[in-house]
């Protein structure tokens, strides 16, 4: 069964999509069969890999009354082991379409069932809101990864977001775990960034990844050239940062899965 990781933060401009794209690409480079699910109506993850006119069907058709299935809309990229479930602007209509639907928070989780045996890793890029799309991502995921920018307002809205996370854990998805928080767009030259990093460390402690994603012009340029950082600038600091982050994520997931297996074995023997 695939490990499903939702990349989410209600605050925009924190490198969420950049993290989703390059983390998925890093997993694929490690020979993990990886699916990147684009839940953002802006479709930036999708546009990194395909021109919009090549996207006939999207996640929208899967989540609206099950018109299509994930295997029907998933598109392989030119990169080995990496596929994308694309988004289109039509996703912006989904919120209104799902109002009053009893299964609204579970649409993505249910739709992913056929794909969970086909992939090792599923990365979900969510929109920068706490609406139904983000809720669907959190309900479908095993793990949540939160990107935070090292800036003055870095923690603004974090309390609301973590409250939503706990509500999801309380009812629709008790198995959801916070795999970690990652600092993005870090400019080590400024005192403000260093002070913000200390603040985030005080709040999150060991939940904060050791890897810090530095501010890097190559990371900003790569989507415009329809590339991941690994194909665009493989020797850049940005590529090194996301390689390290992927390694850390996989280590944390392996540790928690191991712990869960041991716990279940003890419970069974008891």
What can you tell me about this protein's structure?
The chain is an alpha/beta fold. It has one domain (3-269): Rossmann fold (3-Layer(aba) Sandwich). 44% of the residues lie in helices and 17% in strands. Strands 3-4-2-5-1-6-7-8 form an 8-stranded mixed beta sheet, with helices on both faces. The protein is globular.
Give keywords.
270 residues; 44% helix; Rossmann fold; single chain; alpha/beta
The number of domains is 1
CATH level-four homologous superfamily name: P-loop containing nucleotide triphosphate hydrolases
Tell me, rounded to a whole number, the average pLDDT: 91
- CATH class division: Alpha Beta
Q: Cα distance, first to last residue?
A: 26 Å
- Bulk shape: globular
DSSP E strands, number: 8
Overall radius of gyration: 18 Å
How is the CATH topology named? Rossmann fold
Proportion of residues in extended strands: 15-25%
Question: pLDDT below 50 for ≥5 consecutive residues: which ranges?
Answer: none
Which structural category fits the helices and strands? alpha/beta
**Largest sheet, order of strands side by side?**
3-4-2-5-1-6-7-8
CATH architecture: 3-Layer(aba) Sandwich
What string gives the helices and strands in order?
A: EHEHHHEEHHEHEHEHEHHH
Helix share bin: 40-55%
> How many strands, which pairing sense, and closed or not: the largest β-sheet?
8 strands, mixed
Number of helices: 12
List the helices and strands and how they pair.
Blueprint: E1 3-7, H1 16-29, E2 34-38, H2 44-49, H3 59-63, H4 70-73, E3 75-76, E4 82-85, H5 94-98, H6 107-112, E5 121-125, H7 132-140, E6 143-149, H8 158-170, E7 177-186, H9 191-204, E8 208-214, H10 217-221, H11 229-232, H12 237-269
Parallel strand pairs: 1-5, 1-6, 2-4, 2-5, 6-7, 7-8
Antiparallel strand pairs: 3-4
Helix pairs in contact: 1-12
């Amino acid at each position: 069964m695939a490990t499903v990781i939702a990349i989410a933060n209600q605050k925009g401009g924190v490198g969420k999509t950049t993290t989703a794209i390059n983390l998925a690409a890093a997993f694929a480079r490690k020979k993990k069969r990886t699916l990147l699910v684009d839940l953002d109506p802006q479709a930036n993850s999708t546009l990194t890999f395909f021109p919009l006119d090549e996207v006939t069907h999207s996640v929208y058709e899967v989540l609206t009354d099950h018109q299509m299935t994930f295997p029907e809309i998933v598109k392989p990229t030119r990169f080995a082991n990496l596929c994308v479930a694309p988004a289109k602007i039509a996703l912006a209509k989904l919120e209104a379409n799902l109002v009053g639907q009893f299964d609204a928070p579970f649409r993505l989780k249910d739709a992913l069932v056929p794909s969970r045996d086909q992939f090792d890793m599923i990365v979900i890029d969510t929109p920068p809101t706490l609406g139904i799309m983000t809720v669907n991502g959190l309900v479908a995921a095993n793990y949540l990864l939160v990107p935070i920018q090292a800036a003055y307002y870095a923690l603004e809205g974090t309390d609301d977001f973590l409250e939503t996370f706990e509500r999801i854990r309380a009812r629709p998805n008790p198995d959801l775990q916070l795999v970690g928080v990652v600092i993005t767009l870090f400019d080590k030259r400024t005192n403000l960034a260093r002070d913000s990093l200390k603040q985030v460390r005080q709040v999150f402690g060991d939940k904060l990844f050791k890897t810090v994603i530095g501010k890097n012009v190559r990371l900003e340029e790569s989507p415009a050239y329809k590339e991941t950082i690994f194909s665009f600038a493989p020797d850049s600091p940005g590529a090194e940062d996301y390689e390290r982050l992927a390694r850390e994520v996989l280590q944390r997931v392996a540790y928690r899965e191991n712990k869960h297996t041991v716990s279940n074995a003890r419970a069974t023997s008891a």
